Amino acid sequence: MSTTTPSPAVDIARRVTQHKLFWPVVALLVLLVAAGVRSPGFLSVTVQDGHLFGQVIDIMRGAATPLLLALGMALVIATGGIDLSVGAVMAISLAVSLEYLDASSSAGEPATAVVAVALGVAVALVLGLFNGFMVTVLGIQPFIATMILMVAGRGIAMLITKGQITTVTAPPFKHIGSGFFLGLPMPVIIAAVAFVVVVLVVRRTALGMLLESIGINREASRLAGVQARNVTWFAYAVSGLLAGLAGLVYGAPTMAADANNIGLMKEMDAIMCVVLGGTSLAGGKFYMGGTVVGALILTTIERVVIIFHIPSQLTPLFKAVVIIAVCIAQSPVLLQKINMSRLRRASRRQAEIANQEVPA
């Protein structure tokens, strides 16, 4: 009696299709190809004055803000929490930076822009620490704790800007959102650096494992010696810091702080990026690479809607259909059924081979 073993090619194909990133990447490629077919120049990239331009570059630029938000959100979700305040933190961070520039007599100086950025990010870090304090020290549920700042944050931003749209003229600050470095838009560079730093911190140290252990079973991780309070607090601090940076990147091109609209509903985009990347909202295992793909999918959907001339009132429906399709393809239940079906087919093939080899 002999058994059949899958060929290396079949084994590799199976592992690829079962990878968490497979269906998100497929969805992204389908969207890009569909847009390329609809608009032949969609995938072309040109070089002007040493800078890269094109629809693909614009997608990368647009994905920078949701990616920055989603990186911090992924860490928070890994602990079993949620951060609904990232949009409000964006508004507060930008308001602080632009108010400082507006009050400065040297807004056009690079040093002044650096101080403005540092102030905005520092305030965002403090807000992240506040969320962490509410969740870890006071024991308030993450949904409620971060919703407090989500609601109050708009009012704080309005107080900072005195209810007005603060506008300034500061070329060094504007460079953060509309400048270029090594041919790529600055938002792409900033998001890439943030991604690398976060990945190094959570994957090259034990921090990532600690985050996941807290999300899987907080009490068991505590009994095992994990400082769950400090690790969770750190996750909320990082989420706040990255949200503040996202606010600066988002508002720098226009150099205008509109407290009512900056970051509005961006927390939903961040959560969708994380989920599209394969991270479960129940906490535990998280995927940084998948978060990048999720941000690219979300931004590509918004660009494809324009390419296909889909009415604005149907845009949310189109986005929902794509997101639902990706989530269904990633469903553990569906993947388990597919694996069971493969095992049954393999068992039937082995039984047929065994029956053929039995002498009459």
Radius of gyration: 24 Å
Strand order of the largest sheet: 1-2
Largest sheet: 2 strands, antiparallel
Tell me the overall shape: globular
Please trace the helix and strand order, writing H or E for each element. HHEEHHHHEHEEHHHHEHHHH
Poorly predicted ranges: none
Percent range of helical residues: over 70%
Q: Per DSSP, what share of the residues sits in E-state strands of 2 or more residues?
A: under 5%
Mean pLDDT: 84
The number of strands is: 6
Number of helices, counting only DSSP H or I runs of 4 residues or more: 15
Distance between the termini: 14 Å
Q: Pairing-aware structural class of the strands and helices?
A: mainly alpha
Oligomer, anyone? Answer: single chain
Give a verbal description of the structure.
By secondary structure, this protein is mostly helical. The chain has a domain at 59-285. 71% of the residues lie in helices and 4% in strands. The strands form three sheets. Strands 1-2 form a two-stranded antiparallel ribbon. A hairpin with a 2-residue loop joins strand 1 and strand 2. The longest helix is centred in the middle third of the chain and has 28 residues, at 110-137. The mean pLDDT is 84.
Provide the descriptors you would attach to this structure in a database record:
360 residues; mainly alpha; two-stranded antiparallel sheet; 15 helices; globular
Quick rundown:
This protein is mainly alpha-helical and 360 residues long. The chain has helices spanning 8-17, 22-38, 55-78, 86-103, 110-137, 142-161, 171-178, 186-203, 207-216, 218-223, 228-251, 266-276, 288-307, 315-329, 332-357; strands at residues 45-48, 51-54, 166-167, 180-181, 184-185, 256-257.
